[in-house]
Amino acid sequence: MANGIRVDEAEPSGAALIALRQAVEARSRPAQPSAPPHKTPSPPVRSSNDGCTTAAGPGSQADGIEPAQAGKANQCGKQRGKEAHHRPPVPAGDGADLFSSAARPATEPTGNADTLSGHRGRLRGRFDRGEKLVDYELLELLLFRAIPRRDTKPVAKAMIARFGSFAQAVSAPADQLSEIDGIGPRVVSDLRLVRAAAERFAESPLRARTRLTSTEAVAAYYRTKLQGVKREEFHILFLDKRNNMLATECAGTGTVDHTPVYPREVVAKALHHNASAIVLIHNHPSGDPSPSSADVEMTRLIVSALAPIGVKVHDHIIIGEGAHVSLQGEHLM
After folding, report:
1. 40, 85, 152, 237: most buried, per Cβ within 10 A?
2. Rounded to an integer, what distance in angstroms lies between the CA atom of residue 302 and that of residue 269?
């Protein structure tokens, strides 16, 4: 109002109001964000028996796995790695892995089973055809049963190198045999069986109760029995009136070069067996069967002790390495 005169402002038109409202709304409205980038859907998650949650596909944050899930997956992967490292070996099955290096025990051969089978078959074939095998081959053949899945040639050659011959190896003490790689209780038992069989075979003529007229038959039996023995042993063979075998006994065991023998004990044993005659036998572990002066003197004492009861001493045989000496044959009795 000026000078008392009231002036009214003009009303805005409808179009102006609409434009003004749109401008205000545009000014107050927040800016629209740009379209989000395409995001690959997260792969499904599976749970294992050990409680670990593992993504079915490649796992990383970029692949859609949350960081917490990715960390847990990494921890589970490390845990499985440790378990796999300490997991016991799977036993060999019936398939092609039977002879694999992972399934084969440490004591088994490193060669192929077919190769071993072929070698054993050829060696058996030579033996069956009557071919003469050298000492280590005969030992190798003998070891087939006790060592079914190992190459026995190195074992057999080691035995020959240690003991010198087939006979010495078969008659070697168990503790010395066990020192050779590849020889266990089963091999030792089989070798003892072979030796027992050889002794029984050599003994059979004596046990047949046929008349003994040969020093060679007696020496052959005791040579088998005393082969490889490392201490002196004194044995007595008791005979009846027809020189048939009654019994045999080991009357004493001594050191490497001496065996104590007491004539009164020999007399007592002869009476016990009701013997009419005896043969004295002992071994020399050195291998030299030559009689010593002590051997000759001891024989004369026993002859003198048995004479009053009518028991004769037919001979005294000394067994060495592959040879023997008869004191009767040497006219030392």
Report:
1. 152
2. 12
